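Dataset card, provenance and construction

Sequences and ligand SMILES were collected as paired inputs. For each pair, a complete structure of the chain with the small molecule in place was predicted and serialized as structure tokens. The example below shows a pair involving adenosine-5'-triphosphate. Curators did not alter the output after generation; any descriptive sentences attached to a record were derived from the structure itself.
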Amino acid sequence: MNSTTASPVIRLSGVAKDFGSTRALNGVELVVERGEVVVLLGLSGSGKSTLLRHLDGLELPTAGTVEVLGQDIPGLAPRELRRFRGRVAMIFQQFELVPSLTVLENVLTGALSRLRGPRLGLWAYPKALKIAALTHLDRVGLLEKAYQRADQLSGGQQQRVAIARALMQRPEILLADEPVASLDPESSEQVMRLIREIAADHGLTVVCSLHQVDLALGWGDRIVGLRHGQVVLDTPTAGLSKERAMEIYGRVSTSTAELDAIESELKESRLTMEAEASVGASRLTVGGTR
Ligand SMILES: Nc1ncnc2c1ncn2[C@@H]1O[C@H](COP(=O)(O)OP(=O)(O)OP(=O)(O)O)[C@@H](O)[C@H]1O
């Protein structure tokens, strides 16, 4: 696990969250570095959304510390919290667009945290922001839909609008809560690829909850597995086979001891792979010098 890193953008320590008698998060330790693309993987109710909501201050912990972009989130005054939220964008399973507004207006609302007062209608936004919104729409491949009502678009298109809206915030962190759970496989692939490309273009740190193992494997740099509000797995996706991941995922409801055993097995197999790779490399070098 990444416990000692130079400049993490997210650092959670001993985080617990109770909703009445339900403990949604339990002793969560998580460190994410700038530019990392992390998948939160877990069954329904494992605490993925609650964890994401702590990262932009929508929830405050019952215990523990939440530090994001160098800020102690629970310690922020309401005004500081609002300013902080402008640096973290979020996209959701249900897109959360305003259905009766045009696509362009929906994208523009992403800039509201940087503007004073409400904006009603396109005319109320500065020209530079309209140009930025159209540029982002072009980036997500929907420029020609700018003046259509948002509810006339397909689910995949609506999620791409939500991504363009998130970019209007000029965020440093992008949080995505099950962004493709309502989409068909083809649109899911498209949206996930887009998030990855945009994260690279803008140097974003991404934390994304998913429940599809295939997508998680082919997509993130790192998988963090949650079970009953606890981090039970934290591993790079490189070298993790679908079979092993499915096994872990299928056994997420097993005991912590079993999961510990699976995780150490995974670590061992990674070490073996690395050792084999380095032996292979040295053989190649020796072969090359003959
Ligand atoms: N506002 C709330 N009030 C009461 N209980 C809550 C609240 N939010 C979450 N919970 C509870 O906390 C636990 C974790 O929920 P959470 O939504 O974080 O899980 P999840 O992994 O995101 O699930 P899903 O994939 O179904 O969205 C669940 O038992 C849930 O019922």
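Derived descriptions for this record:
The longest strand covers residues 8-19.
Confidence is low (pLDDT under 50) at residues 1-5, 283-290.
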